């Protein structure tokens, strides 16, 4: 997965791009590229901004372990600077009330917010021992989903076991996928969970997760879930046993 060089001048968007706000409480559009800049307007969650050309050098900023820049943008005719760490080209998910079903959360998001770019590809096999099905779909924005379902006929009351892999193209940042997973419900019992970059000790007690940070990945574990955020790849693996990005 492509991770922008926030310490330099490389950005993941360009003038004219539309970006969506993924901060639940919204983000302030400010008069200058500074946290103390006077707010012009608060852009609400799911608000859409247009990136504007800025001749000034990007100003680096960090909040809740999310590194980013102040980007010059326009919202409903008002122009100013806004923190890009909670902005994304991905549509902001809407709340989905009901029982949390981990393997289906991402699929529901794709179906409700993005369009398929080709017909699904189906594979299946069935015998006396059970049934296996696989569906592969390509979505706009360079996202691929592969969902497998297995049913074991040799056990009482057989229920399908789901294994899903979602692959995001390199244009998406790891932080975007983290925000997305949090918003659509994967961390439904850990609302205060922050994105861990170098050290997550401060947020560990709040989230209930333990963290292991290495050169290649960030592994978050709780009693119920294991989540691996890999910095170089971009596949999200979802099973009934847990969640991973590997």
Describe the fold and architecture.
- The protein is mainly beta and 246 residues long.
- The N terminus and C terminus are likely disordered.
- It has three helices and 17 strands.
- Strands 1, 4, 5, 6, 7 and 8 form a six-stranded antiparallel sheet that branches.
List keywords for this structure.
disordered N terminus; 6-stranded antiparallel β-sheet; mainly beta; 246 residues; disordered C terminus; 3 helices; elongated
Topology, please?
Elements: E1 18-21, E2 27-30, E3 39-43, E4 48-51, E5 59-63, E6 66-75, E7 78-83, E8 87-88, H1 102-113, E9 121-127, E10 130-139, E11 143-152, E12 161-168, H2 174-183, H3 201-207, E13 210-213, E14 217-221, E15 226-230, E16 235-239, E17 242-245
Antiparallel strand pairs: 1-4, 1-8, 2-3, 4-6, 5-6, 6-7, 9-10, 10-11, 11-12, 12-16, 13-14, 14-15, 16-17
Describe the main β-sheet briefly: 6 strands, antiparallel
Question: Which structural category do the helix and sheet elements fall into?
Answer: mainly beta
Order of helices and strands: EEEEEEEEHEEEEHHEEEEE
How many strand segments? 17
Q: Poorly predicted ranges (pLDDT <50, ≥5 residues)?
A: 1-9, 196-209, 223-235, 238-246
- Over all CA atoms, what is the radius of gyration? 20 Å
Helical segment count: 3
Average pLDDT taken over every residue: 76
Amount of helix: 10-25%
Percent strand equals 35-45%
Distance between the termini: 10 Å
Shape: elongated
């Amino acid at each position: 997965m492509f991770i922008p060089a926030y310490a330099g001048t490389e950005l993941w968007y360009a003038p004219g791009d539309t970006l969506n706000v993924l901060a639940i409480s919204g983000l302030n559009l400010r008069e200058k590229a500074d946290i103390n800049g006077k707010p012009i307007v608060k852009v609400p969650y799911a608000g859409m901004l247009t990136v504007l050309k800025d001749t000034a050098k990007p100003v680096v900023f960090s909040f809740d372990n999310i590194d980013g820049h102040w980007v010059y943008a326009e919202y409903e005719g008002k122009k100013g600077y806004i923190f890009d760490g909670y902005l994304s080209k991905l549509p902001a998910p809407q709340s989905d009330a009901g029982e949390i079903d981990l393997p289906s959360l991402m699929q529901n998001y794709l179906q409700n917010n993005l369009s398929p770019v080709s017909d699904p590809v189906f594979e299946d096999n069935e015998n006396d021992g059970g049934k296996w099905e696989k569906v592969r779909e390509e979505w706009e924005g360079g996202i691929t989903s592969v969902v497998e379902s297995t049913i074991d006929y040799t056990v009482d009351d057989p229920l399908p076991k789901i294994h899903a892999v979602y692959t995001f193209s390199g244009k998406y940042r790891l932080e975007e996928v983290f925000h997305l997973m949090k918003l659509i419900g994967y961390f439904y019992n850990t609302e205060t969970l922050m994105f861990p970059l170098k050290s997550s000790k401060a947020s560990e007690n709040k989230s209930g997760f333990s963290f292991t940070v290495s050169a290649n990945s960030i592994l978050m574990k709780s009693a119920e879930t294991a989540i691996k955020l890999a910095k170089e790849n971009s596949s999200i693996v979802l099973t009934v046993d847990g969640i991973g990005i590997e």
